[in-house]
């Protein structure tokens, strides 16, 4: 047998519905208005801490994996210096093949 929902008398329910212009939703929670509890357990994949042997806190703490920020300008200079030798010969060859513009008019 389902639980009886607590509410006001049926006559007053009709008066309330007329005055509201809609059916009133009771804020109380009853078992028949809730989701079923027969849902299966979730199947989650194993994480980094699922093995207990040799699983020290310092090796699984994500905060310890954070490194200080790198200077992108310095990194780019290093890359340019390493790649500069290889591209210098290629840029000379490409400059010889491309036409050069004519004289530039000085407006001043």
Automatic annotation (TrEMBL):
Protein family membership: Belongs to the complex I NDUFA7 subunit family.
Keywords: Acetylation, Electron transport, Membrane, Mitochondrion, Mitochondrion inner membrane, Respiratory chain, Transport
Quaternary context: Complex I is composed of 45 different subunits.
Keyword Mitochondrion: yes
Compartments, as annotated in UniProt: Mitochondrion inner membrane
Keyword set includes Transport: yes
TM regions (residue ranges): none
Major subcellular site: mitochondrion
BP-aspect Gene Ontology terms: mitochondrial electron transport, NADH to ubiquinone
Domain of life: Eukaryota
Membrane topology recorded in Swiss-Prot or TrEMBL: Peripheral membrane protein
Gene Ontology cellular-component terms listed: mitochondrial inner membrane
Function: Accessory subunit of the mitochondrial membrane respiratory chain NADH dehydrogenase (Complex I), that is believed not to be involved in catalysis. Complex I functions in the transfer of electrons from NADH to the respiratory chain. The immediate electron acceptor for the enzyme is believed to be ubiquinone.
This protein's name: NADH dehydrogenase [ubiquinone] 1 alpha subcomplex subunit 7
InterPro entries to which the protein is assigned, alphabetical: NDUA7
């Amino acid at each position: 047998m389902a639980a009886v929902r607590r509410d006001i008398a049926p006559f007053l329910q009709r008066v309330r519905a007329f005055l509201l212009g809609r059916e009133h939703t009771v804020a109380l929670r009853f078992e028949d208005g809730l989701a079923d509890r027969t849902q299966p357990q979730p199947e989650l994949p194993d994480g980094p801490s699922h093995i207990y042997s040799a699983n020290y806190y310092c090796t699984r703490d994500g905060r310890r994996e954070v490194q200080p920020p790198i200077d992108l300008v310095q990194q780019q200079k290093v890359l340019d210096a390493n790649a500069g030798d290889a591209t210098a010969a290629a840029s000379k060859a490409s400059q010889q093949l491309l036409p050069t513009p004519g004289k530039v008019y000085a407006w001043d």
